[in-house]
Write a structure and sequence with these properties.
The chain is an alpha+beta fold. The chain contains three helices and eight strands, in the order βαβαββαββββ.
């Protein structure tokens, strides 16, 4: 499967074995542009309703995490290649997702965890079981390929809107519908100015 770049070429020169973790390999699904704009509108309304100060994620950064492989001190080309090959064998039908609730996640509930903040997330009432099954298939395919995983057994499909200080919010919202028909392996560059590179994408058929 060919590699597709969606951001500028990243440079990893000068990174040694003792360097801090810089690269996160993660399988995720991203909403289409129309759905992302709808989600952004809901996020804007909630941010002002609850007087939250955290910066909203940009629409192009909205995603639903499926499987966090691991964080690395430099880009793990060999592991990424094995992960792409293993994922290419997965056959799964499109998943109709309905987000109809927003709630707070403490940082330790996030995947991967963020102990310094709370996330405001959308929760799916429809499609959660199918996404959980897809995550299981991904995890099994990675383990068969000999790839060590850093993921939690508990999985609650969600889409993060923003991070902020401690808050407690639970609210039903007008349903947002999204058909997940593709997932991608992403190299997310860790740090303040985070960028990501799409390493491959797999259509769900």
């Amino acid at each position: 499967m060919a590699v597709r770049r969606i951001s500028e070429q990243l440079s990893f020169s000068g990174l040694g074995i003792d360097s801090p973790q810089t690269d996160r390999l993660i399988f995720l699904a991203r909403p289409d542009e129309v759905t992302a704009r709808c989600i952004s509108h809901v996020a804007y309304q909630l941010k002002h309703k609850y007087r939250l100060n955290g910066r909203m994620l940009r629409p192009e950064l909205f995603h639903l995490s499926l499987l966090h492989i691991h964080d690395y001190c430099q880009f793990p080309q060999e592991i990424a290649d094995r992960a792409k090959e293993a994922a290419s064998c997965i056959a799964f039908p499109p998943v109709d997702v309905i987000f109809d609730k927003v709630m707070s996640f403490s940082g330790v509930e996030a995947d991967p965890p963020r102990e310094d903040s709370y996330a405001l997330v959308l929760l799916a009432s429809n499609g959660a079981a199918e996404l959980t099954a897809l995550r299981k298939d991904l995890a099994l395919s990675m383990m068969k390929a000999g790839i060590k995983l850093r993921h939690k057994l508990h999985f609650k499909p969600h889409l993060t809107l923003l991070y902020d200080k401690r808050h407690r919010i639970v609210e039903d919202i007008e349903p947002i519908r999204w058909t997940v028909n593709e997932f991608a392996l992403i190299d997310s560059l860790l740090g303040r100015d985070r960028k990501s590179t799409r390493l491959n994408s797999s259509h769900i058929t």
